[in-house]
Write a structure and sequence with these properties.
Blueprint (H helix, E strand, L loop, with lengths): L2 H5 L8 E2 L18 E7 L18 H9 L1 E7 L4 H10 L25 H7 L3 E7 L17 E5 L11 E4 L2 E4 L4 H15 L5 E6 L11 H7 L16 H28 L5 E7 L21 H4 E7 L8 E3 L3 E2 L3 H8 L3 E2 L11 H5 L10 E5 L2 E5 L3 E3 L5 E3 L15 H17 L12 E3 L6 E5 L4 E3 L3 E2 L9 E2 L7 E8 L3 E10 L8 E6 L2 E6 L27 E10 L2 E11 L7 E9 L2
Parallel strand pairs: 2-8, 2-9, 3-11, 3-12, 4-5, 4-8, 18-23
Antiparallel strand pairs: 1-13, 3-10, 5-6, 6-7, 9-10, 14-15, 15-16, 16-17, 19-29, 20-23, 21-22, 23-28, 24-27, 24-29, 25-26, 25-28
Amino acid sequence: MNKEAFYRFPLLMLMVIATSCGTTEQQDSVATVPPNIIIILSDDQGWGDFSINGNSNLSTPNIDQLARDGALFENFYVQPVCSPTRAEMLTGRYHSRGGVYSTSAGGERLDLDETTIAQIFKQAGYATAAYGKWHNGMQYPYHPNARGFDDYYGFCSGHWGNYFSPMLEHNQQIVTGEGFLIDDFTNHGINFINEHQDQPFLLYLPYNTPHAPMQVPDRWWDKMQDKELTMLGLPDQQEDPDFTRAALAMCENIDWNVGRIVETLEQLGIADNTIILYFNDNGPNSWRWNDGMKGRKGSTEEGGVRTPLFMKWPQQIEAGKTIERVASVVDLLPTLTDLAGLTYDYPKPLDGVSLKALLMEDNPEWNDRIIFNQWKERISARNQRFRLGHQGRLFDIEQDRAQRVDVSESFPEVKRSLQTAREDFIQTVAAEIPEQDNRTFPLGHPDSKYTQIPARDGVAHGNIERSNRWPNCSFFTNWTSLEDSITWEVEVLQPGEYQVTLYYTCKEGDQGSVFELVHRNSRLKSKIEDPHDPPLTGMENDRVERPESYVKDFKPLNIGTMQLESGEGQLTLKATKMPGSSVMDVRLLFFERVN
C-alpha cells in the first residue's frame, strides 16, 4: 500500500444498510427501528469492583441494575491492558492484527486500514460521538474524528495527569475541561443524547477511572476514606487499603454517572430502544478483592482479563438473563451490528462472532470456541471449560476459577488441543506485529487543520529527561545544554504554512533562550521572552501517591509560522542561545495549517 493510500484508506468498499435507511425488507433483523447504542468502558476496574458480583465494600446500584434489567455475561474476556482492548472493541479483530502492541510511544495506534464500529454506524446514518480516553492514536488520521466519530472530547493518551478541569481537546482543538473528568465526559454524553434523541446514535464513553492517579471528588472519597474493608485480596497479595478505598470511591462515582445516563434516556422516552453496554478494559490496577481469581491488570490469567459485560435493551433483551458461554470484546462489533440490523461487506475477516443468538434465544445451538488473551509474549487460551495459561499449565476454570490446580495430566488431549490452537495464534495473529515499528507520526493530514505533537511521542537527547518513565502524560525537562535536543519522527502529509504553538514553562532568570524548530529544509526560530514557572500540580487531589508524572500549567507561546514541505523527516527542537541555567520544559507542539 502506498503512502497516500495508507493515510487515506478508502471506506467506499464498506457497504452498510440500516433498517431505517431506505429499505423496508430486512432478513434476520431484530430491530424495526434502529436502536441507539451506548458503550460505556471503564479503565482498570476489576471484575470484583461491583456490588452485584458480591463485593460489599462498595455499592454500584445503577450498574447492577443494567444487569438486572438486561443480560449478564459470566465469562466475558478482554485483553490485559488498555489500548489492545479498545482496538478490539472498535474493530472486532484481535489487536495484533491492527498493529497495536503497546500502550504508548506510537505502539497504541490502530492501523489505518482497519474499519471501526463508528465508521460502520456512521455510514448507516447514525450520529456518532466519543467522550473520554481514546488511547488508539492522536494525530489525524489515527484520531477519533478520522475513525468515524463526528464529535470527540477528551484525551488521546493512555492516562492523564489531572482529573479536575485539565487541558483536554475537542475535535483536535485544545480546550480546558470543566470539573471532574468522569462527570464532564458524562455531561457531554447527556448533551449528545439530548441533541440526537430523534435519530439513531452511537455514543462511546471510555471513562478513564479508576486508573491512576487516584483522584475523586470529596463526595465519594468522604464516604470511603475511613470505611472498614470487609473483603480483601488474597493473603499473599500486598494490598494497599487506601488505594483500594480510592479505587472503590472512583467506581461509585462511575456508577452515579451511569445512573445519570439511564435517567436521561428515561426522561426522553428513548430508553426502551437503547442498547447500553458496560464493561472494563482489563483486570484491576491493584491487589484488591477479585473473588480469588489469579492475576490482575497485565496478566493473561482470569483475574487480568475477565470482566463483567452487562447489556441492557428493554425492547428486546429479556431482563435478568445470565449467559454462561465464553465471549470476548472482539464479539461486540459483530453483535451490535447484528442487533441493529446492519449488513456490511467488511474488507477484513473478523475474529469476533455475533452473540445475538445467546441474547435472544433460550437454548441456541452454539459451538465451543477458543478465546485468546495476549500481552506481548504472554498468551493464554480459554475455551468454555479450560484455560491454558501462558506458562503451559492447564486449569479447569469451571471448577477452579482461582487456577490453583494444574490438570494437565488429567486432560492431556485438551491440553494438546489448546497448545496447538495457541501455537497457530502465535504463528498467524500474533505474528502480524512487525519486529520494528517504522510508522512515523503524521503531521498536517489534508482532512485536518490541526496536529498535536506531544512530548509523549518525542525522543530526548543529551541531558533532557522525561518527567516520568511513563510517557503518556509526561513532559521534557532538564534542558541544560545547547547540545541537547528533542526529536520526533514525523511525516508531513500536506505541505503548506503552519502556525506553531509551543506549550512551555521557564524558570525566572532563564528567559532569553533562543531556539529553533527544524524539519527537512524548514526552520523556525523563536525566543523565550517571558518566564513562566508554575508549580507541579496533581498531588493536592491525589488520594494516594501516584506512580505517574505530575503536571504543570504549561503556557502556550505562538512561535510563528513555518513553511513545511511534504515528506518524512525528523522534527527537531534545539536551542541556539541559553543565557540561564536551562532552556525550558516542553509539553506540546501544536500545528495549525493556515493556507
